[in-house]
Write a structure and sequence with these properties.
about 500 residues, alpha/beta, Alkaline Phosphatase, subunit A, Arylsulfatase, C-terminal domain, 2 domains, ten-stranded mixed beta sheet, four-stranded antiparallel beta sheet, about 30% helix, about 15% strand, disordered N terminus, binds calcium ion
Length: about 500
């Protein structure tokens, strides 16, 4: 019966006619799956990844009791496209969401639809950001657009509701309430998707005063001069020194605060802002101050995520659900925490292309294991389908991580990743580019302006030295270009860019 439904669904809504199923035997009982997804969470802000800024004990627990993926990356480091890739297992040029301006078509084949057809209860709580009404969910409560950090408004299947409080806490309240009301005879998928730590990094009431006297070590390339690199790195608009606005820097409070919340907020920021104005900082001292303000608030929002992941893990322990519930933690992409002088993401450089991925699966994943294999958000749909014993449509372009999770690395696991970013002109003015990353090298082509960059990641892990034009790397450039061509063919990337060049709204 399950198969029939899944097959009918695929035939009805598959983006292409060649969708078929690869079969796999299913184990029993089927596990619950909780997919925790944050927005813009850099691995450098998770202590399990060796981040030097903060302690995230609850996130670290997922790694300690499961597997941490050191080399997890995205196909396109921007919110909507990453979310669409997670749902569809396809690159943006096929799933219809290559930029944040594109909406996910309601008939698109997604893994929650397949899990639901296979008997899973499916819930989506938190950020959606794909514009159209979510399909494939028994229940959803989604933030409007990007959402706000305080007093969020949720769209639900038949109404809207505004809840007073801090959004990271509230999303957790509502996610736990959804688990509570489920049919305990059926397995469930919960997509538990936070707004945090997305811009404008408004800390929660529990963390407003955290680490206010602390000095955060500066990013190694806060004052990058972009020597060896071309126009894209120089012309972007995401500099900590120049492009953070008054909301980002907390010179103005969140507009949605209640009088009580505003009073509490001002008690923290008013004296700090007054001291800043008195100091009359300029030039590099001003950039340094902005870095401290930006990074501190970013980390404070992460701390609320960690608190709430702890609440969820404790709930699973207390209810006995932990044993048969897979917990996945990831983000829609990474973030620059001052590297190259930047905030934001978009570039194929490591800090934004890399994303956290930690998976706890009791009885299957050996606790405390680490994978260094190249994996991508392209693989998440296939992975969750296989976890549930549901066949993976051939139209999906990634590969299930279940063999890696079982400690059985396939000999033919991928050795290169494809990436493409399309949103130019647009927010932060990062040029369109595509590229290939292997374990050792990264080749990037800014194709509108035909500029190339090559990084030797072993010698230059921070990507400060573009070696594309150096004679020593001539053979590497040749082989990486061949690999790039192969990947573009493999993933069916059209030769002509499908995204129009007219300026569009977005973020
Ligand atoms: Ca994001």
């Amino acid at each position: 019966m399950r198969w029939t439904w899944a097959l009918l669904l695929t035939l009805a809504v598959a983006p292409r006619a060649d969708a078929q199923f690869r079969t796999r035997a299913r184990s029993s009982p089927r596990p619950n799956i909780i997919f925790i997804f944050t927005d813009d969470h850099a691995v450098n802000a998770i202590s399990a990844y060796g981040g030097r800024y903060n302690q995230t004990p609850h996130l670290d627990r997922i790694a300690r009791e499961g597997m941490l993926f050191k080399s997890a990356f995205v196909t396109n480091a921007i919110c909507g496209p990453s979310r669409a890739t997670v749902l569809t297992g396809q690159f943006g040029h096929l799933n219809g969401v290559p930029t944040n301006n594109d909406s996910l078509h309601p008939t698109t084949l997604t893994f929650p639809k397949l899990l639901r057809a296979a008997g899973y209860q499916t819930g989506l709580i938190g950020k959606w950001h794909l514009w159209t009404r979510p399909e494939g969910f028994d229940h959803f409560e989604i933030l409007r657009d990007q959402g706000t950090y305080y007093n969020p408004l949720f769209y639900r299947p038949t109404d809207t509701v505004t809840v007073e409080g801090y959004t990271t806490d509230i999303i957790t309240d509502r996610a736990l309430a959804w688990i509570e009301q489920r049919d305990t005879q059926k397995p469930f998928l919960l997509m538990f998707q936070h707004k945090a730590p997305h811009r404008p990094w408004d800390p929660g009431p529990n963390h407003l005063d955290q680490d206010r006297q602390r000095y955060f070590p500066e990013a190694y390339s806060l004052f990058d001069d972009y020597a060896t690199r071309g126009r894209p790195a120089r012309e972007q608009e995401m500099m900590i020194g120049r492009h953070l606005n008054d909301r980002d820097l907390k010179f103005t409070p969140p507009p949605e605060l209640s009088p009580t919340q505003l009073e509490r907020w001002n008690r923290t920021y008013d004296p700090l802002n007054a001291a800043f104005r008195d100091s009359a900082l300029t030039d590099s001292a001003l950039v340094r101050w902005k870095f401290q303000r930006y990074l501190g608030d970013y980390l404070r929002t992460v701390q609320s995520v960690d608190d709430n992941v702890g609440r969820l893990l404790n709930y699973l322990d207390d209810t006995g659900l932990a044993q048969n519930t897979i917990v996945i933690y990831s983000s829609d992409q990474g973030f620059f925490l001052g590297e190259h002088g930047w905030f934001d993401k978009r570039f194929m450089y490591e800090e934004s292309m890399r994303t956290p991925l930690m998976i706890r699966w009791p009885g299957v994943v050996q606790p405390g294991t680490v994978s260094d294999d190249l994996v991508q958000n392209l693989d998440y749909a296939e992975t969750m389908l296989e976890m549930a014993g549901v066949g993976v449509p051939a139209a999906m372009q990634g590969r299930s991580l279940v063999p890696l999770l079982r400690g059985q690395r396939p000999a033919d696991w991928r050795n290169a990743l494809y990436y493409q970013y399309y949103e130019y002109p647009g927010w932060h003015m990062v040029r369109r580019h595509y590229g290939v990353r292997t374990n050792r090298f990264k080749l990037i082509h800014f194709y509108e302006i035909d500029e190339w960059e090559l990084y030797d990641l072993n010698r230059d892990p921070h990507e400060l030295n573009n070696v594309y034009a150096l004679p020593d790397y001539k053979r590497t450039v040749y082989s990486m270009k061949r690999r790039l061509t192969q990947l573009r063919e493999q993933y069916k990337v059209p030769a002509v860019d499908a995204v129009p060049y007219a300026p569009r709204e977005g973020r």
